[in-house]
Structure prediction request, 251 residues.
Amino acid sequence: MPGRKKSADRALLRARTDAVTGLPSWNDDTSLYDRTHLPSRLRIGGFGLWQIGHMGGTRREIPNDPGRKRRILDAALDVIAEAGVHKTTHRRIAARAEVPLGSLTYYFDGIDDLLVQAFARLSDTMSVHYRRTLESAATRAEAEDAIVELICGPAYASSREMTLIFEMYGYANHHPQVMDIARAWLHRSRESLSLHFPEHVCLALDVLIEGWPIHRVFEGAPLDRALVAATVHTIVDHLDAAAERPGRRDA
Prediction:
């Protein structure tokens, strides 16, 4: 039957297009999708490849893999942590995420855009953990303990995260967008510290939280938790006392 053959041809075209591009499948009643959302290499005569044979109807089906973009970003961070930014490629990321190579060019405008979004995800994930750790503290003493945990504990500044931070800072040196991400991350950290401490104390503690784990990586030895705790307490006590003396507090 002609109708059956036409339907079968459309199904075959969809299957071939999905296999090549990694794009989600769409139903026959899909409406025309804004063609600017598709990479130029997937357009034919102004229409996307998937649009051929999909000209009727008004509804667009929900993509069958809504978590794919997040998995790609997480895979990109894994590749960066293992191989470095300089060896991070589309193929390595796609293989790690177990997605078709075409998925990367569908969601991202190139490897640079992918790296920027991956580092933004790193910043967001670590900032959330930072905030929650400090929010769990009910007193000043508990807040000091929370800072010690951020510096010495395994959850926040893990080996993987420290490697990613090094890679991010190196990349930010030559990339304004990533530098903006790093700067915004810094301000978010200070905002979280301000739940318990005045601004001048937040500045000092934030430097300590970032700097001590970096030294730990270079030295290749665990930190002395008691020394870290004593240092945190000394900074808080001394700067609070200094701020109370006339003429010593920052404007």
In short: Residues 15-62 have pLDDT under 50 and may be disordered.
